[in-house]
## 1
Amino acid sequence: MFKHSYASDPTLGDRVFDLLEQTFPGVGQARDNGVRFGATWESVSTPYVHREGSRVLAHVGLMAMPLEVAGRPAVVGGVHGVATDPSARRRGLFRGLIEELLADTAERFPTLMLTTLHREYFEPFGFRVVPESIFRTRVSPRVGMPTARSLDLADPTDRALMHRLLAARAPVSSVLGVGAEKACWAFYEYRSPIRYLPELDLAVIAVRRERTLALYDVVGSTIPPLERILAGLGESVDQVVAYFSPDRLAAEFAAEPHDLEGGPESLEPGERDFVFMVRGPFAAAGRPLMLPRPARC
Ligand SMILES: CC(C)(COP(=O)(O)OP(=O)(O)OC[C@H]1O[C@@H](n2cnc3c(N)ncnc32)[C@H](O)[C@@H]1OP(=O)(O)O)[C@@H](O)C(=O)NCCC(=O)NCCS
């Protein structure tokens, strides 16, 4: 039995992150994001670990990720934090953990997903790459006054506002969107620039690069048309690139293949080269899509 629980072993989180930090430097800060936001990794992740004494030599994590996939709600098993200590690799530790996870989840999660730099580690276990796209549209520069204000999640009032929006969020896409989930969101987005549009009761995560606005997340109980989001943000840009399927944004976007292997519009440094993989049924296969960033745990 490799399956453990953070609830029954309060020291396990630190020991798992000792392993993860040496494999993915900086991941401890992302864990801290969840603590600050009040939605911790340990509250949602089930750890499969191989231990030697008090040390964790190998880890595979699992969390339930609420998605909308091809127009239907679906809870998918998200596999994350896959690592074996360098001194213990190629001895079958990862195999033991992932095989137990696959057996455990066969009924609960018909579909599993992950993002990885190394598809070859997961293909032998039935995962397949789902090609991703980014979505581009030309827009007219704004002239009006922006209504948006920056959210500061260190401030309890802004943090409560963000919790409220996430709890009631509509998935940003009906092709592939994320539902009401907080821990993975905080892991990724706690330090992102977040703007709040009061007239739409909406939080937007977007980064301007020269005349292009990269749009990563839109959090609200309904997804308004792009025009209204841009009016609230007041950004003077010529084009918008959405890093999620923009079917709810009521604008004409063109999909461009995006394998995340570099390119001018690639995601932030550190996210490049990650591919999206699924195992089991995936109704959105074949459609232009991208797994939204706050689900890429
Ligand atoms: C990926 C990783 C967890 C594998 O751990 P491991 O305990 O050494 O893996 P195992 O010995 O159990 O190997 C199981 C199977 O995984 C695949 N695999 C593991 N390492 C591999 C490698 N370097 N190249 C190709 N396939 C590999 C093989 O199919 C292997 O079966 P085989 O040994 O019969 O060929 C480890 O290399 C690691 O921590 N890498 C750095 C972090 C990482 O890349 N994580 C992946 C998510 S981004």
Note: The chain has two domains: 12-131, 134-258+288-295.
## 2
Amino acid sequence: MSLAGLFLITFLLVHLGLNLTLLFDKSREVFNLAAHFMATNPLIKVFEVVLFGGILIHIFWGITLFFQNRAARPQQYYVGNNSQQSVFSKYMIHTGVIILAFLVLHLMDFWFKAKFIGGMPEVSIDGKTYEDMGLLVVEKFKNPIFASIYVGFLLLLGFHLDHAFQSALQSIGINHSKYTPFFKAFSRILAIIITVGFIAIPVVVYFTF
Ligand code: HEM
């Protein structure tokens, strides 16, 4: 579960980097060329299968661990938990399920439409025709309801990630009392970068495009 989670964090960083090009290049050319590359490169197609496999493994083990933990302690403690756990770490399964709902909505919005529904807007770049995936994103986020829904879900993703990285390192055995505070801080910084980066996209598109 941890390895799948670390792999998903890597995907998120790449996904964020590509999506941010939309904000810096309003012609959407860089974004559309990158989206085209991602959709057609054979190596990326293999990666896509691994990605969806990673998502399924992560979800399966997350739910299994949740129920195993509950079965191991059917009654809750009377005394509240005063450990060093962060607030968000107690709600990993809850934020995880909400992120799954987000992912379904998100894939329907873009990926599913491009792959299976069709009718994508098109754009010509250097005489070649490409799908205008960037326009789809911009149109989506010009709608205040969609932009707000994305911001809400992305905040929850941030809470999930706040605990994720350091927890994954601990699970795969990279654990030392001396370094734990460093991993915790790094996990938080990573969560903030990913969350703020993704949230910037609907917000900037809504207000400035
Ligand atoms: C504002 C934020 C985001 C934007 C604008 C965005 C945009 C997009 C677009 C345009 C696609 C379709 C790309 C293509 O098929 O070529 C896509 C695919 C995808 N997105 Fe996002 N995304 C965002 C956030 C997220 C987040 C937070 C997650 C994960 C929790 C995520 C997971 C995915 C996945 C799994 C795919 C399918 C990847 C593939 O198979 O190529 N996205 N996204």
Note: Strands lie at 122-125, 128-131.
